[in-house]
Design a protein that fits this description.
2 copies of one chain form a homodimer.
Chain A: E1 2-7, H1 16-32, E2 37-39, H2 53-57, H3 66-76, E3 81-89, E4 95-103, E5 106-112, H4 120-123, E6 133-136, E7 139-143, H5 152-160, E8 165-169, H6 184-196, E9 199-203, E10 219-221, E11 227-230, E12 236-241, E13 250-252, E14 255-256
Parallel strand pairs in A: 1-2, 2-3, 7-8, 8-9
Antiparallel strand pairs in A: 1-12, 3-4, 4-5, 6-7, 9-10, 10-11, 13-14
Helix pairs in contact in A: 1-3, 5-6
Chain lengths: 274, 274
């Protein structure tokens, strides 16, 4: 059983040092409360509402930045893991919307968001490598960032590659939805969890930034597709989830969500872009 | 704008003639109420709870069977279309769980269910051809049957191939779900509609058969992923939907659910079965 805590925080735009302190304190608090996996929002180290690559670059860091050592220190004692977003300055001088996977030994993996949302395209370069499945002390984590979740190929491919939990730092812009409905991103996550028999932990953000508000819809979804945790009054979604349950894709002796696939008939899914 | 009616009927197991009369009457009733597309459940001509291929064969018919002429007659006057399920006796002597697409000119297409659910595998042979996108008088219809819907490759591939509405005859076995939740199949449909910007019409069945009850969760979902119709007291889900809206995959000048895809990174989705 893994205790997961999604920390729905508000970064300060461009204030890296302040965000390092805030996130590290939050991780330490969740670890003290028993969490083994702490999920932070997309771009939590930098903030989100940049208007150009030049502006995003002012808050961009490399995986050698001390923030990751601070996160690593915070989880080392419990064999824990942190996943959180940052603006990454690449060796190529370009700026990526990235997520780091950190354990007590340091940075295990960095993923550069592949599907940039809307005006992010003005500030970031899209990643060109598929998302990783990372072996961590808490299990095999598949990493996505925000809009990536809405492409069923992404969730499917991570689950097929053995991910036991999809971890999704996100910044979901505020939407109006019909009375009584969840925001679409959560519905999409529930469906992906159900069809892939894999848990999903989404960490959204809060804090109005340059006029933009957010759904604040962080949630933890189990491998049957049910939301088992939403945020509490402190902005934390917490759940205990047995990640090993994601290894079983069957519903009965004659139903298996992976074994029943017919990939030879799915050709159009990977067709080139129009 | 297309008026869609999903008729959540109860077939009589093995009683083809009775089911022909019932379905034809239902279609005529819906056409009289203004429907242009009438969706019937999976295996509505045969019933569902067969225990062997031999038993299913007793209710299996070919696309030349008079039921399709009767359905065709019922919609001819209004330029309408019927999609409904039947046990198909193939030229090869095998029995398939199929759906027919019928308009005033006759049978436009037959689709053999690719993903058989559970004990259906004892009675039916899985189809070996991808689902069709059928040009009809009401628009381009992508056809799936029941469990097919839960494979995101299926919904995605139909939408990529230009389907403007996914039409899904289904028999959803009764499930217990948490208080206030939809059955997972509907959540999966909402997510598929949202991520593919395509409407979906699901027609479930009713009527306990050999002890098996059903969700009775027929619904019509618009291209934004919202359920716009559930069944009324008469077991009919009715909605007016502009299928042309499914042609636009964009949310803004810089967001396009298809244009933003990165198929070169989705290789694992079509990986061979393990």
């Amino acid at each position: 059983m893994t205790r997961i805590a999604c920390r729905q925080l508000a970064p300060e735009l461009g204030a890296v040092d302040a965000n390092v302190r805030m996130t590290t304190a939050a991780i330490r608090e969740s670890v003290a409360a028993g969490a083994q996996l702490v999920v932070l929002p997309e771009l939590i180290v930098s903030g989100y509402m940049f208007t150009s690559a030049d502006e995003a670059r002012t808050a961009a860091i490399t995986p050698e930045h001390p923030v990751f050592a601070a996160w690593s220190d915070a989880v080392r004692g419990v064999g824990g893991v942190v996943v959180g977003g940052f603006a990454e300055l690449g060796d190529d001088g370009l700026v990526y919307n990235s997520a780091a996977v950190v354990d007590g030994s340091g940075v295990l993996a960095v993923y550069r968001k592949v599907h940039l949302w809307d005006k992010e395209k003005l500030s970031f370069t899209p990643g060109f490598v598929p998302p990783p499945v990372v072996e961590t002390p808490v299990g095999r984590l598949g990493i996505l960032v925000c809009f990536d979740l809405e492409f069923p190929e992404m969730t499917r491919s991570l689950a097929l590659r053995g991910a036991e939990l999809l971890v999704v730092p996100t910044n979901w812009p505020l939407e109006t939805v019909p009375e009584g409905e969840r925001v679409p991103e959560v519905t999409v996550g529930m469906a992906a969890a159900y069809s892939n028999r894999v848990g999903i932990a989404c960490c959204d953000r809060t804090g109005i930034e340059r006029g933009q508000d957010w759904n604040g819809a962080s949630c933890i979804i189990n491998e049957q597709g049910w939301v088992i945790a939403n945020v509490d009054a402190d902005g934390v979604a917490t759940a205990d989830l047995d990640l090993q349950l994601s290894r079983d894709k069957s519903l009965s002796a004659m139903v298996d969500f992976f074994g029943d696939r017919r990939p030879e008939l799915y050709g159009a899914v990977t067709a080139p872009k129009a």
